[in-house]
Amino acid sequence: MLRRHLAPILLECLKSSRIVNLVGPRQTGKSTLVQTQIPIAAYMTMDTDPVRSALQSDAYGHLRETANRHRNSRLPIVLDEIQRVPEATLVLKRIVDEDNLKGQFLLTGSADVFTLTNAKDSLAGRVHTLVLRPLSAAEIYETGPCRLLDLVETDPESVMANLPQSKTFSRSEAIDLILRGGFPEIRTLDDRHRNGRYNSYIDSIIIKDVPVVSPVRKPDSLRRLVDQLAVRTAQELNMSNLCNAVGARQETVSAWLDTLERLCMINRLPSWASSGVKKAVHWPKVHFLDTGCAAALRNESQRNFDLDADPTSLGPLLESYIHQEIEKSLAFTKSIWTLSHWRSDRAEIDLIAEGPGRRLALIESKASATITQSDFKSIDWFLTKGPGQNYAPKSVGFVIYLGKDVLTFGPGRIALPLSTLWSFASQL
Q1: Residue 1 lies inside a defined structural domain of this protein
Q2: Domain limits for position 26
Q3: pLDDT digits over 21-41, tens only?
Q4: Number of Cβ atoms within 10 Å of the Cβ of 391
Q5: pTM across the whole model
């Protein structure tokens, strides 16, 4: 049983909010987390027909009686897969307002119940929403969350000195991490069964979860869209080309993209912009939020990434993997950071993390074990001649690669082994 980094944060939120809403894709371990790592008073799942029917017929009576029975425990009541009974939101509001106690209910769901059109109330001011992603590399290796952005915020000039000792790893181990992904049960399977499970998983999402968020009249077309997004992970989103490949209208594809993003399956990474940007591309990039799932849909295996194979095939998956690991770390940073990408006719930055005080962490990925000064040319141009000039004193540029050494290529220019992402101490 792997300890989830989100567990301590979830416990803290239960102390300050009447309801905590834990959302995330199916099979990421939400139910396991709340049943094994969080003290709870009762567990009720809407996947069970009798429980779901009871709430649909008399939600207030059923939940009021359950809350009264467990009041003295001061522990939360878990309502699992609550998005199946969105009409219960108004009842939850009534109960938590009557009792006015912290940590009364812990909700889980593959979709945020409070954003569904048939939800009766948003419970604004009463609920704290957290997102559980697939396992991070740090959780798999049982180390601490990635604190790279905290180092940039604390002292950009001392990042190099404060980096942890990077764990040793091989190229094949890195590729194995990318191909397996972070879904706890699926990632441990052999290649054939893992790819089959990921494909079945997508079919299940389309059949069970997507209709809860938005009606789907053409599930086959939606499945083609998901397959296309896996092929295009880490690419800018060209809607015209995507619609042609799927055979659907732009309005339909746009609605499906919204639904997939709400189900935490993809992320549309916006283009970074400032008042000084000229001729920058403003299209978002699309990232699959689990490279194991994306690789399965692309029918990738270790053989596809042998040293004598196509050297460009690994790059997009590695970029998406680094994006998802940094994205998972945002829940644990001391301050709020936002993520974007940037490209102009002069340079391109895979990932820009912007934090407080005009701090930027520019991150490029390189699917190679070697690195040179030229790998920093986009970062250098962006911070010295491009739109990041005013951000330069508090910014750091990283190139994350498949080598073993932490290297410096001048002030604020650092090459990091991929394993740096899972090399921080375990203390939260």
Answers
A1: no
A2: 6-131
A3: 999 999 999 999 999 999 999
A4: 18
A5: 0.94
